[in-house]
Amino acid sequence: MRKKPIILSQQIVASTRLFTVEEIQLRFSNNNEYTFERLVNRGHGAVMLVAMLDKENFIMIEEYCAGIDKYQLSIPKGLIEPNETILEAANRELKEETGYGAKKLEHITALSLSPGYMTQEIQVVLAQDLYPEKLEGDEPEPIKVSTANINNLLALSQQKNFSEGRAIAALYIVRDLLASRGKKFDAR
C-alpha cells in the first residue's frame, strides 16, 4: 500500500460566497514537495437522484448551467442542508425540482467530482414509488421536467444537451443495480 503524503501546510488563498480555494503543501514518500490548490467543500455535501417513475422511465430536468453557459438536461440534484440526512435532502430536492416525492429512497454510492482538485462528493440516491408533491425551491426560474428511458442511456449520452458526467455515471450505476436485482433492462 502506498504511503500518503505528509501535509506540511494548508491555507485558504481565496474565498467567495460559493467557493473556497485552499493551497496545500505536501511531502511525498520520495521527499519531493509539491503545492496543490483545491476547491474545498464548505457545506454539508450534495445529492443527485435517479427518480424512477416506473420500471423503465426516470425523471430528467433541464436547467441553465452557468459554468458552460447552456441549458442542459440532467437529473435532480442539490445541496444537503444543515441537520438534513442524505435521504431527507434527496426527497426535498426531488419535490422542489420535479414536483414529485418518493416513498422509497435508497442511498446508492458517492461519486467524487474531480478528486485531484476538489474535496466535493455527491451522494447518488435511487428514488422509487413516486407521488405528486411540490415544494418551493430556490431556483431562479422554473425547471423543465421530462422523462427518459433507462434502456436508452447510450443515445441519451450522445445528445449535445446532456453532458454532465456525474449524471451519466449515476444513471448507468442505477440501471445496472436494478438489472442485478432481477428487473429486466435491455442495456442499449
Describe it.
- One of its GO terms (molecular function) is ADP-sugar diphosphatase activity.
- This is ADP compounds hydrolase NudE.
- Keywords: Hydrolase.
- Residues 26-172 form the Nudix hydrolase domain.
- The protein folds into two domains: 6-40; 46-180, Nucleoside Triphosphate Pyrophosphohydrolase (Alpha-Beta Complex), CATH 3.90.79.
- Helix content is 18%, strand content 43%.
- The protein has three helices and ten strands.
- It has helices spanning 86-98, 153-157, 165-180, and strands at residues 6-15, 20-27, 33-40, 46-51, 57-65, 70-74, 77-79, 100-112, 121-132, 144-149.
- It has a four-stranded mixed beta sheet. A three-stranded antiparallel beta sheet has the order 1-2-3, with no helix packed on it.
- A hairpin with a 4-residue loop joins strand 5 and strand 6 (70-74).
- It is globular.
- The mean pLDDT is 92.
Could you outline the blueprint of secondary structure elements for this entry?
Elements: E1 6-15, E2 20-27, E3 33-40, E4 46-51, E5 57-65, E6 70-74, E7 77-79, H1 86-98, E8 100-112, E9 121-132, E10 144-149, H2 153-157, H3 165-180
Parallel strand pairs: 4-9
Antiparallel strand pairs: 1-2, 2-3, 4-7, 5-6, 5-10, 8-9
CATH class of the largest domain: Alpha Beta
Separation, N- and C-terminal Cα atoms: 38 Å
At the fourth CATH level, what is the homologous superfamily of the largest domain?
Nucleoside Triphosphate Pyrophosphohydrolase
Q: Count the helices. How many?
A: 3
Total strand count, please? Answer: 10
Shape: globular
Mean pLDDT: 92
CATH architecture tag of the largest domain = Alpha-Beta Complex
H/E series: EEEEEEEHEEEHH
Task: Give the biggest sheet.
Answer: 4 strands, mixed
Keywords: Hydrolase
Organism: Entomomonas moraniae
Domain Nudix hydrolase: 26-172
Cofactor: Mg(2+)
